[in-house]
Amino acid sequence: MHRAAASSICTVLALGAAPGLVGQAAAAEPAARDKPPISAEVLESAQPSDWRRPDPANTLYLDLPAGRVIIELAPRFAPEHVANIKAMVREKFFDGLPIGRVQDNYVTQWGDMDEIRKSEAAKRQLPGETAIAWSPSLPIVKLPDADGYAAQTGWLDGFPIGVEPTPPAQVWMTHCYGIVGVGRNDWPDNGSGSELYAVIGQAPRHLDRNIVLVGRVIRGMELLSSLPRGSGALGFYTVDEKSRRTLIRSARLAGEVPAAERTNLEILRTDTPLFTRYVEARRNRHESWFVRPAGHIDVCNLAIPVRDIPR
Amino acid sequence: MHRAAASSICTVLALGAAPGLVGQAAAAEPAARDKPPISAEVLESAQPSDWRRPDPANTLYLDLPAGRVIIELAPRFAPEHVANIKAMVREKFFDGLPIGRVQDNYVTQWGDMDEIRKSEAAKRQLPGETAIAWSPSLPIVKLPDADGYAAQTGWLDGFPIGVEPTPPAQVWMTHCYGIVGVGRNDWPDNGSGSELYAVIGQAPRHLDRNIVLVGRVIRGMELLSSLPRGSGALGFYTVDEKSRRTLIRSARLAGEVPAAERTNLEILRTDTPLFTRYVEARRNRHESWFVRPAGHIDVCNLAIPVRDIPR
């Protein structure tokens, strides 16, 4: 809600935007060096080792007519569902299937909505991978801030998580904006992966541990979030709205497309001292626009920076 | 992430949808009466007095080519800003102005983005109405669930709030999905109301008490949230993207349009025992789809039901 007229000031608030402007401001105001850094300054100070490249074998390209949605899959959290999705992708299972549900402030869902396809490679029955066992040896990055839905929150493998160290001692991905899950009918059906959804609104954390999550959109969320909403129950497009459906051109693993067709991205690592400083800069905002730092940050309010890397 | 095939089951999860189906399920399963009610059942049991009609003098119609966005203004929270906005609306200030900023997972912003208009009636300087004084006599409905950003949360006049009963003893609207605020430059400029924004993503609660909030979208959010994102800094449309801007046909107060042109809505009251039951049904979901109730609800995860009323 910065006003347009203030764009020269405001750009420093955009993730990674206009580092030159930040530098100029710092140079013009040497006394300001005593202030805590803002997040753009923290990012500017990142070393190459503070970034990671997602594994091409677990990076899914969902190519739509309007562009590419890139999903980082999370095999640690749902190994069998991720394996199933990858098996279907190799069969070109998703090619030509629709985005058939867009429910405002909730989810965009795509895949075999009409149950017209059959995968040869995918399993029909999978375990209910809604959480993994907690262990003190898991490389969990804790967020110290209190959370209402989980005893603890933080990150694991770069994905936002809830943690319950006491029995049942579980770790699970949290339903933040951009998280990708597996559509299902009533339990114990937990879905095969033939229908997937991404969160496009306020984090529906009440779904945590109720459904299998398989990854996170790291690029192209706007292609899923700006689609016309369906007017049927739960945001499904009605029969009359079939023409509003977006059809998936292709779904491919990054590792299986030619190098020239890949989108080469880096994601800020969450297991570094720099990330801790980044979180603090987002928890307490000291950009000139702000008058009151929040003193708190929710795990779903921390968008993890992603950037292009040169080919 | 219900699958499409399960739509007969899933409809009960939609707010206020298909009450007939809920009734049938209850009739078929008399033993289920011992289970806590689900939110659709709570809504079904609502009496006329559990609903309220927004004040036409504080209901703003933002008519876009694609339809009507309806905003309930909140004069208690920002009386001078609301008065300013209403003064501008009476001047037809917003008619023809653009939606000039759509930042994914953040805000949609409209109004005098190009600073081409001048209001005769509106004040240029207003007090910084980011919070009101807390008082024990305020008719606050408390949400008992813990919150990281505020000592307490709840509702006041039907708007979601944060509460700090200790000094500085304040109450403020929380930045939930659909909340409407006033664009500003750097403080102490707090904006005149000539540019407004609505939250279209994860609740940016770090903005609470940093900016003036004036109301909430009660109908038509999808018209703001499904717009193409701007590719400029902070989601502003670039010069090349001016053609993507949506132009506001008109902005009018409901009380000032002919009765036949009004959209007649009712909003579920938040200050009733029924609402408390509704919150509990959303805090712990017992619909058949769920396997694990959350045991918690965030003030921004509680969408307050709105329904059409017959003319």
Describe this structure in words.
The structure is a homodimer of 311-residue chains. The first copy, chain A, is of the alpha+beta class. The first copy, chain A, has a nine-stranded antiparallel beta sheet with strand order 14-4-5-12-11-13-3-2-15. The radius of gyration of chain A is 20 Å and the shape is globular. Mean pLDDT of chain A is 90; it is low at 5-31. Chain A contains six helices and 17 strands.
Short précis:
The structure is a homodimer of 311-residue chains. Chain A has 311 residues and is α+β, with helices and mostly antiparallel strands.
Helix content bin of chain A:
10-25%
Largest interface: A-B, 80 and 80 residues
From the N-terminal CA to the C-terminal CA of chain A, the straight-line distance is 35 Å
* Rg estimate of chain A, integer Å: 20 Å
- Overall 3D shape of chain A: globular
Widest sheet: strand ordering of chain A: 14-4-5-12-11-13-3-2-15
What pattern of helices and strands is seen along the backbone of chain A?
HHHEEEHEEEEEEEEEEHEEEHE
